[in-house]
Amino acid sequence: SACAIPPAVQCTPFGINFDFITQLPFDGHVYVRGHYRDLQCHRDCLQVKNTTNSFQIPFDRCGLRKHRKMNPKGIVTSSTFVISFHRIFVTSVDRAFYVECFYAEEDQIALPVADLDTKSQMPMCSYHVVTSTPNGTVEVTFASIGDEVAHKWKCEHEKSVDMYCMVVHSCSVDDGNDASFEIVDKDGCSKDRYLLDELTYFDDLTAAVRSNVFKFADKAHVHFSCQVRLSLKKEYEDNTCPVNLCINFIIIVVLFQSAVG
């Protein structure tokens, strides 16, 4: 058996509905990857045996990933659904589907009329993991432990270079289940320089850092996510974006310890 058509996804206020149709009556399993043993994240269809099947997961279970998006403004939730046709084993006909839902957020902030610019928009920010090859820099799709890669963040807008400051902060890595580790704090400073050094800002809206690929023990995937904070230059003295103080703080501590010793 196999899926007759691609699954249909409904993004509801309470969670994600995942509907699929099979060529023959389905008596296998559908579940969220990494949560097979959680009854709220796994449906056994042996007693049903329909060609049309539906599966729902709530927002607060099954490791549903959430992250904020600034342009357009809202929340993105994502998960991977697996349709397994065999009762016991994973086989070549099984299918996995990565699902994303976007929930738009209305901006209800009131601004003085004098400050309102109807033509202004927030910068578009992007994040990429890249590596160097003989043919130049390419985006990484998969990597092995120890491979050297570069994490790059960039925000772009026709006027943003003169208007905004960017700070990358609150970065965390997780295995898609329950294991999570904060690697960059809320101020944008590395919490484990063995895994990830301090970020380098090449201009007000571009940052990058090199690292070697790592992962959790006995896990095939690692999810890396950060938040980007944008602020107006006019909020700072001389309309200049503040510099990253993490490295300066480390140097001061080292010098102080050396002087005491």
Automatic annotation (TrEMBL):
Annotated ranges, domain ZP: 10-248
Domain of life according to the entry: Eukaryota
GO cellular component: plasma membrane
Matching InterPro entries: CUT_C, CUT_N, Cuticlin, ZP_dom
PANTHER family, sorted: GH04558P (PTHR22907:SF54)
Subcellular compartments: Cell membrane
Protein name: ZP domain-containing protein
Record has Transcription as a keyword: no
Species this chain originates from: Soboliphyme baturini
Topology within the bilayer: Single-pass type I membrane protein
